[in-house]
Amino acid sequence: MPYTVAEIARHLEGQVVGDGSIPLDGFAPADTARPGDLTFAENEAYFARAEQSAASAILVAGEWASATKALIRVPNARIAFAKVLPLFHPEPIFAPGVHATALVAPTAEVHASAHVGPYCVVGEGARIGARTVFEAMVHVGAQVRIGEDARFYPRVTVYPESRIGNRVVVHAGAVIGSDGYGYVTDGGVHRKIPQVGNVVINDDVEIGANVTIDRGALGSTVIGRGTKIDNLVQVAHNVVVGEHCLLVAQVGIAGSTRLGSYVTLAGQAGLAGHLKIGDQVIVAAQSGVMRDIPDKGQWMGSPARPDWQMKRQLIALDRLPDLLKRIADLERRIETIGRTLDTEAGPERKTPPASTP
User: Fold this and answer.
1) pTM, to two decimals
2) Fewer beta carbons within 10 Å, N or C terminal of the chain?
């Protein structure tokens, strides 16, 4: 559906600079934009490319002017980009109802407005809220509770007793509530500790493809409201993740670790078990966290240290080859000086004086 520049500006509460009647029917980056497309620019280099492109209008966050393009001026072009993109690419609409191939237990409660797709399974006593969507082959275990407006992509598995809130999105292949990794050595064998807890996922969480979130051994593994989890993340048993955290691809969190709110764990960061990570902490990619971290720190490295400390060590390591070369040069010079002094002193310098009786 096309929108005019003025209509999009009203949607974004932005300001039109130029012709507000230009129709727009798509959104594209500057290098692939065509007439009728909207693009965006958040810095001078982006704006130069956008102005030279075929796009009809530009979202801008600065005081730039253009003689050839209509502009929509907003406080933050990237935020505006996130808000306007759904206008051109709306989510698909799923018809209410249960597909003929789905298996819904007699004691399960599925809201009449929910969509249960092909080959889905809904276990005994499960409750599925209004307008929630299960795409194909979603498996929901017994006594699961899922709120309203949730969306489950194909092949998601939710183990029994899990609790999932409103507006939660779970991408393909994710597993919620599998057994935690708990064993005790008994007589030379590893005896499994039964995992009898559950998983609690609060409102507005998004979970990426092939994420695994283990159920608690006792009690709950908890994902806080508004947290966003990237693909291929492992959350172990009894972990508690605070609100609005960002867990990037291939992060691993060991059992019983607690994260505060607004924590960012960059790609492949690993956290040991039974740690406490404060609010607004950022852990850099591929870091290994072995100890508690207070609020608002930025940490990096393995084992992770405060970033300023680790950066100094990395700079020192970068200088190490030159330092070793200088030390080797100094050793050679000292050895040469020593040989010269021995030669100048003559044989008597090398012969210790005779002892006096």
Assistant:
1) 0.87
2) C
